[in-house]
Specification:
- It is a single chain.
- The protein is of the alpha/beta class.
- 19% of the residues lie in helices and 29% in strands.
- Helix 2 crosses helix 3.
């Protein structure tokens, strides 16, 4: 079984990271169950293993934390749901790409609960939405904004870190970084898209869609249908 925990208030980053790593180690040892933590952080930037110094455009704005997760710079802050996923990937097939695809599709299915079409893009991390209400990009393609970031790390085949979904953060806080190193697209949130979604609404959708991709009997359902295999083009 997966234990779900809601952490109230704003969780300080470093103590929460330490607690998450402790829980992941206990899962690897077999002394704790898998866990998903739902929380918010105070305003801060995190640097993943691929972060480029030039992408931190305002280093004195908020605290900056280097972290072992994959990815580049991202922002966390009030109004953003952070989902830390401590799952036994070893027991779920030992396929990291399949695991990340399952995370992406979990976010997409969650957004669909609010009639939002989330999409992934080759060469870009996270989940994106098209913005037909905005002018097209210079190449004529539709404008797109990022609504969710994904960055994970595995240790002894147990994952930690996870996902962030923008519910109603201060989007101006993203201006201190180049989010995930992508300069040509913006950032959005559920409320920015005109949807009066609360954290509680999002949490309920996350919990409802989770079993489609991470069944309690183990394994992965990366596309919500096929439990046995994960074929990623």
């Amino acid at each position: 079984m997966v234990e779900w925990t809601h952490l109230p208030g704003l969780s300080p980053y470093l103590p929460t990271l330490a607690a998450m790593e402790t829980r992941a180690a206990a899962i690897a040892e077999g002394s704790a169950t898998e866990a998903v933590w739902l929380l918010e952080h105070p305003p801060l930037y995190t640097a993943g293993t691929s972060a480029k110094p030039a992408d931190l455009t305002d280093p004195n704005r908020f605290p900056v934390h280097e972290t072992g997760r994959g990815g580049q710079y991202t922002y966390h802050g009030p109004g953003q749901r952070v989902i830390y996923c401590m799952l036994d990937v070893g027991a779920r097939g030992r396929d990291v790409r399949c695991f990340v695809r399952a995370l992406e599709n979990w976010v997409i299915a969650t957004l669909a609960e609010f009639n939002i079409r989330g999409e992934i893009r080759p060469g870009r991390v996270g989940v994106w939405v098209t913005r037909p209400d905005r002018a097209p990009s210079p190449d004529g393609s539709p404008a797109e904004d990022k609504i969710a970031a994904i960055g994970v790390k595995l240790r002894r085949w147990v994952s930690f870190h996870g996902i962030s979904i923008n519910v109603e953060p201060d989007l101006s806080h993203f201006s201190g970084i180049i989010p995930c190193g992508i300069r040509d697209h913006g950032v959005t949130s559920l409320v920015d898209l005109g949807l009066p979604v609360t954290m509680a609404d999002l949490d309920a959708a996350l919990m409802a869609t989770f079993p489609r991709f991470f069944p309690t009997e183990g394994g992965l359902h990366p596309d919500g249908r096929a439990p046995a295999a994960c074929i990623i083009p």
